[in-house]
Design brief:
The protein is an alpha/beta fold. The chain is built from 19 helices and nine strands. α1 (3-18) packs antiparallel against α2.
């Protein structure tokens, strides 16, 4: 199917959702998934529909796949946490809520979810503190007020609990959980009394003190992953830049990670995933892709350049350019057998979607172990413009040269820093020596 078919399927799915026809929505979304099997949003949407159908266990798998594609999405972690909560897997839910908060600590629903699973596991102290903070920051949030009322109810503070349920209903008279709370307390002997804010604060403090005596159930530690991953690519800068941060992050998360420049068969250690950078550079790496696939591993190919249109001056041109028949054959072969292809940008994704639709853009980026994140910001001197030139330097300089010269003439303090071959420095001969450095 083409892109127009995909758009039509998504429109039909959206209409089915609006009509609450969940079975029909699921059918349309799964057809769209066949066209774009590595679209994180489709995984999320399918998971959401399964939840609506009461099939939360099925939803978990789709949410996990979405998270693998978008590991730094707070919403993806929250979706998974919500599903775990429905299934009663509170320790897993807590872990996912906490990760979501690390990525976005301003989402009230995530904090509310964390408070709920803390309380359900017996960690009343933290749960009550979170809810009290939520109510204090927004006194007209019926959900937070109701959850806090439930804490009072569980601790036997029935008059306070009933008052808070009534407060929630004054904000939203149809809020079912608050109505349920009032109904439960009708059989209690406590009378409804007026409680001013000061009295409420004092009773909350007393409740927190009382709950400190409650036994706290330990939270289960995160489960280590059993998956084994291989990152394999030529000994070039591109392999390190593209795979370094990703491999390190997955290792920290408990995956068994192997990094290599040569493929070695290890029958005793079957691979779950095999990532290859520029495998078409050699017959050896191309065969490694085939062997990994044959052994049942999911194979991901990472390509950071348009190897169909490389300029003749590109380094390793004869090994990488699809202009050469043997290279083109290897490139098309790995593209066809890969389970997914990752690229560094959306324009590059468009290039490779002409050959395979299983393309996922993953831009270059730093991870939180990079020391540059915490390096202090230095005081700025004169304005500086940097040129980091690669194989595109001739056309780049043709475009930039006159503009840079004009900038330097109009702003005498501007400095041009050049990170490239010395020939680039020499080509900017129209710029005064005092305004550029190599």
């Amino acid at each position: 199917m083409d892109e127009s078919s995909l758009e039509e399927l998504l429109l039909n799915a959206n209409q089915a959702v609006m009509e609450r026809d969940w079975s029909k929505a699921l059918d349309y979304l799964k057809q769209a998934h066949e066209i774009q099997p590595y679209n994180a949003d489709l995984f999320t949407a399918i998971g959401g529909v399964h939840v609506q159908l009461g099939q939360t266990e099925e939803a978990i798998g789709y949410y996990q796949e979405a998270l693998r594609l978008q590991p730094y999405s707070a919403q993806a972690h929250q979706n998974l946490a919500n599903a775990y909560t429905v299934l009663g897997q509170y320790a897993d839910a807590e872990q996912s809520y906490r990760r979501a908060i690390e990525l976005n600590d301003e989402d009230r629903f995530t904090w509310m979810g964390l408070a709920r699973v803390c309380i359900l596991q017996g960690n009343f102290n933290e749960g009550v503190e979170i809810l009290a903070a939520l109510v204090q920051s927004d006194p007209r949030d019926p959900q937070a007020i109701t959850l806090l009322a439930e804490c009072y109810e569980q601790a036997g503070e029935y008059s306070t609990a009933r008052w808070m349920y009534q407060q929630a209903l004054e904000i939203d008279q149809d809020y079912q959980l608050a109505m349920d709370g009032v109904d439960r307390l009708k059989s209690q002997a406590a009378s409804l009394e007026q409680i001013d804010k000061q009295a409420l604060a004092e009773r909350l403090a007393a409740l927190k003190s009382k709950l400190k005596t409650q036994p706290v159930q330990p939270t289960a530690p995160p489960k280590p992953s059993s998956a084994t991953l291989l990152f394999c690519g030529p000994a070039t800068t591109s392999s390190e830049v593209r795979f370094g941060a990703l491999a390190a992050e997955l290792s920290r998360r408990g995956y068994r990670v192997q990094i290599a420049t040569r493929y070695e068969e290890k029958p005793a250690e079957p691979l779950d995933y095999a990532f290859f950078s520029r495998p078409h550079i050699s017959e050896e790496l191309t065969q490694a892709v085939e062997k990994s696939k044959a052994k049942g591993a999911k194979v991901i190919i990472d390509l950071d350049e348009d190897f169909f249109s490389l300029p003749a001056g590109y380094y390793d041109y004869e090994q990488l350019s699809a202009e050469y028949p043997q290279v083109s054959t290897r490139l098309h072969h790995v593209l066809q057998i890969a389970d997914a292809v990752t690229v560094s940008s959306e324009p590059l994704a468009d290039v490779y979607r002409k050959t395979t639709k299983r393309v996922v853009p993953i831009p270059f980026g730093w991870d939180d172990t990079n020391p540059m994140w915490t390096k202090p910001i230095l005081r700025r001197g004169p304005a500086k413009i940097g040129i980091l030139a690669n194989h595109t330097q001739p056309p780049d300089l043709h475009v930039l040269g006159d503009s840079l010269q004009k900038i330097c003439e109009e702003n005498k303090e501007v400095q041009i820093g050049i990170v490239a071959g010395f020939e680039v420095y020499e080509r900017l001969n129209g710029i005064d020596e005092q305004n550029k450095f190599f």
